[in-house]
Amino acid sequence: MHRMYKQKCMEENRKPVSDEKYRSVFKEYNLGFYKPKKDQCKKCLSYSTMTEEEKALNKECHDKHINKKNDARKCRDEDKSLAKADTFILAFNSDLEAVLYTPKGSAGQIFYLRKLSVYNFTVYDLVTQDVDCYLWDETQGKRGSNEISTIIFDYVMAHPNINAVRMMSDGCGGQQKNSIVMAMCLQLLLKHPKLQVIDHKFFEPGHTEMECDSIHSKIKVKSKNVPVYVPEGWAQLIRDSRRNPAPYEVHTMTFDDFYDYKTLSENIIAKNKLPIQTICWLHYDKKYPDKIFYKTSFDQEEFTEVAVKKTRGRPKSLTLLKAYKATLPISVPKFADLQTMCKDNTITKGYHEFYNSLKTNKDVRDALAEPDFEEPDEEPE
User: What is the pTM of this model?
Assistant: First the structure.
């Protein structure tokens, strides 16, 4: 900043002050630099750095991007208003929090050693402001579409009296914008006693600010100086992150809770019939079990319909298989690092049994199993 300041002074033929004086003025006026809490939109950042000529050439494309952002937020507000007026409509947002690494503490070596990954999928009710956090660690499941589909299915089924669902999420192809979640929605219409329609809308990439982000921010603030030694520690910390209007509800998930919606999708969804990358709104109707309706812009007047079912006629109630038969192993290097923290009591003795019981497999890669945040809208492998 001081170099930029000196350059500006040279351009205006003014004498710059020294670096020391520059710093003292900043301290005197208590100035600082804004640190964004969320990754900024790549498209908007790119546009902001263009020359005036480049901006003129790209203005139409940028305006469409901004309009999509505004339209998505307007739809979210409309869903909220509709659900407030009609108790038979369930409206919610959902998002997967950034990985919660465990153990977490002030010991310096924790930063350099491999840790256990804990996942928190958050669902926020737009009307009641109730928050449900579904928590599991990497030994109980991955963080892909099977897990997300299972949670959304269970969440909606826990509301037996509704007849419509309006949900909104980001467009991460590895988690919610794919054929696996589509198959889950079709199954949900088949299994729910009263549900008639499901609307799944997606925020514009780069502008997915929603209530779940505030929830995750509160959890992050609450955990700042609190040590966490095992996944259950995150559950208690999340419950304590809000008091009003009610604490966050935490549901601890195990490997036995997750179902294989990927296989279901392979059995009933004919792929490559939907322009998944450009879709912003998916609509499912119980009266049309073989079709999915979509829009590529929120101001599109009519839905485009596509027959996606592989079989004709009414869908058969396919038996869902469990996604996992047992707990999942972790990598050998990660287990070794966790054992190191146990041996030097970075992890206190009361939790050693938990870490000693973890299974390992030399074929497990020490990497995140599924994409994080927003990535290109592609079908997961």
Answer: 0.82
